[in-house]
C-alpha cells in the first residue's frame, strides 16, 4: 500500500500542519535520503542549506500559498524550512552538478478516440526511495479536489483535479540547467493541479515560473465530452508546447522533442530515453484500447527487450545508480481518480495490484 493522506482544509497552513504531523517520520527520512544522494553525486554539503533557502524564497515569491503550506509542513514535521525547500528543489540541486538520470520516466497519452484520455506513465527513481511514495487528496477551491502522487515532503508530481485536468511528469536535462535554484518544477506541477481548469491555464502557469531545471509536464483535460492534451517542455532556455500528433498520441520520455530546445539536450545519444520512445511509438496502438490492461502492456518492456521502460536495478552498482520503476500511474479523468500501482508494469497485470485515490 502507498501511504495516503486525505486533507480537509483549503487553508495552506492548516493543510501543511495536518500533513506534517501525520507524515513527519517519512518526511524526515526523505530529507536524510536526499542528503545522502546529494553527497553521492558530489553536491557540496555546505551548499544544501543555501540551496534550500533559495528554493523557499523562489516558492514564496511565485506561489505564496504553497510557501505557507510548506512552512507549516516543516514545523509540524520537526524539520527546518530550508530542508523542505531542499526536498522540493531536489531536481534543481541535482542539476547543479549535471546529475542526469539514465533510468527515468516514460509517459503515453491518447486523445484520438471518443471519451476521456487514455494515459499511463512509469515513475523511475533510485531504489533508495521506495518507501517515500505518498498519495494526497485535498480541496483546492477553484479546481475542486486535487489527487496527487508525490514523495513525502514534496508538494506535487503526478495527479488530477476534479475540474477535469490531469498531469504527468517527466524530467529533462538541458545545458541551461543548474546555474541557480529557481522555482522547483515539482512546485510548478502542484500549482497547476491546484489552480488550472483548462489546458491554456496550465500552460500559462508553467510559463510564468522562472525555473532553473527542466521537465516536461504532459497536461490532459476532459470536460465530459472532449479530450485534449499537450506536452509542456519547461526549461531555463524557454518553454515549448507540443500538441498531440494527428492521430491523437502524445508520447514522451526524457529528452526534448521541440527542435530549438533539443539543441541544448544533455541526454546521452546512446541513452535509454531514445530506445524507450521508439518502443512506445512502435506499440502505441495499444493505447487505443478501452481496456487499461493494454496501456500497461505498452509499458511492459525491459532492458532485454531493448527498451528498459520497466526499469530494474543492476546488481553491483552503487545505490545512486540503482534505478527501479517505483510506480505505474494513470489518470482516470472520466471517474476523477488517480490510478496507481506501487511497482513497474511487469507486476501490474492484475486489477488487484492497483490502488485508487
Record keyword descriptors for this entry.
357 residues; alpha+beta; Arc Repressor Mutant, subunit A; Penicillin V Acylase, Chain A; 8-stranded mixed β-sheet; 6-stranded antiparallel β-sheet; 24% strand
Could you characterize what this model shows?
It is a single chain. The chain has 2 domains: 3-96, Arc Repressor Mutant, subunit A, CATH 1.10.10; 107-356, 4-Layer Sandwich (Penicillin V Acylase, Chain A). It is 32% helix and 24% strand. The protein has helices spanning 12-22, 24-40, 48-62, 64-77, 81-88, 90-96, 185-195, 199-208, 259-262, 272-282, 292-299; strands at residues 3-6, 107-110, 118-126, 133-139, 145-151, 158-161, 165-171, 215-222, 227-235, 238-242, 249-252, 323-332, 337-341, 355-356. The longest helix is centred in the N-terminal third of the chain and has 17 residues, at 24-40.
**Helix and strand run:** EHHHHHHEEEEEEHHEEEEHHHEEE
CATH topology of the largest domain: Penicillin V Acylase, Chain A
Distance from first to last alpha carbon: 12 Å
Largest pleated sheet: 8 strands, mixed
At CATH level 2, the architecture of the largest domain is 4-Layer Sandwich
Number of strands: 14
Unreliable stretches (pLDDT < 50, length at least 5) are: none
* Relative helix content: 25-40%
| Overall pLDDT score | 95
Strand content: 15-25%
Under CATH, the homologous superfamily of the largest domain reads Penicillin V Acylase, Chain A
Strand order of the largest sheet: 1-4-5-6-7-8-9-10
Radius of gyration: 18 Å
Tally of DSSP helical segments: 11
How many discrete domains? 2
Q: Identify the CATH class of the largest domain.
A: Alpha Beta
- Report the principal-axis shape: globular
Helix- and strand-based class? alpha+beta
Amino acid at each position: 500500500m502507498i501511504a495516503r493522506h486525505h486533507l480537509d482544509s483549503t487553508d495552506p497552513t492548516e493543510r501543511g500542519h495536518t500533513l506534517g504531523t501525520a507524515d513527519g517520520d517519512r518526511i524526515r527520512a526523505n530529507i536524510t535520503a536526499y542528503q545522502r544522494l546529494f553527497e553521492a553525486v558530489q553536491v557540496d554539503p555546505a551548499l544544501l542549506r543555501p540551496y534550500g533557502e533559495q528554493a523557499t524564497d523562489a516558492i514564496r515569491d511565485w506561489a505564496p500559498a504553497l510557501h505557507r503550506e510548506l512552512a507549516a509542513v516543516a514545523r509540524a514535521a520537526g524539520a527546518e524550512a530550508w530542508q523542505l525547500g531542499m526536498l522540493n528543489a531536489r531536481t534543481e540541486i541535482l542539476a547543479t552538478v549535471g546529475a542526469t538520470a539514465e533510468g527515468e520516466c516514460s509517459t503515453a497519452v491518447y486523445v484520438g478516440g471518443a471519451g476521456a484520455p487514455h494515459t499511463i506513465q512509469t515513475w523511475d527513481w533510485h531504489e533508495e526511495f521506495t518507501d517515500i511514495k505518498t498519495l494526497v487528496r485535498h480541496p483546492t477551491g477553484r479546481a475542486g479536489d486535487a489527487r496527487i502522487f508525490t514523495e513525502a515532503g514534496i508538494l506535487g508530481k503526478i495527479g488530477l483535479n476534479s475540474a477535469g485536468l490531469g498531469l504527468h511528469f517527466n524530467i529533462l536535462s538541458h545545458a541551461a540547467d543548474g546555474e541557480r535554484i529557481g522555482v522547483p518544477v515539482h512546485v510548478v506541477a502542484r500549482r497547476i493541479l491546484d489552480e488550472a481548469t483548462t489546458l491554456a491555464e496550465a500552460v500559462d502557469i508553467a510559463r510564468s515560473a522562472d525555473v532553473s531545471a527542466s521537465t516536461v509536464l504532459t497536461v490532459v483535460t476532459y470536460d465530459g465530452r472532449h479530450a485534449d492534451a499537450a506536452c509542456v517542455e519547461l526549461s531555463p532556455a524557454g518553454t515549448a508546447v507540443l500538441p498531440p500528433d494527428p492521430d491523437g498520441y502524445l508520447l514522451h520520455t526524457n529528452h526534448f522533442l521541440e527542435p530549438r530546445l533539443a539543441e541544448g539536450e544533455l541526454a546521452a545519444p546512446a541513452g535509454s530515453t531514445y530506445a524507450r520512445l521508439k518502443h512506445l511509438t512502435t506499440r502505441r496502438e495499444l493505447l487505443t484500447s478501452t481496456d487499461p490492461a493494454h496501456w500497461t502492456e505498452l509499458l511492459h518492456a525491459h532492458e532485454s527487450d531493448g527498451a528498459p521502460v520497466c526499469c530494474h536495478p543492476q546488481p553491483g552498482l552503487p545505490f545512486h545508480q540503482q534505478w527501479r520503476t517505483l510506480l505505474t500511474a494513470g489518470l482516470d479523468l472520466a471517474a476523477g481518480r488517480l490510478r496507481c500501482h506501487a511497482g513497474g508494469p511487469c507486476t501490474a497485470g492484475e486489477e488487484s495490484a492497483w490502488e485508487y485515490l
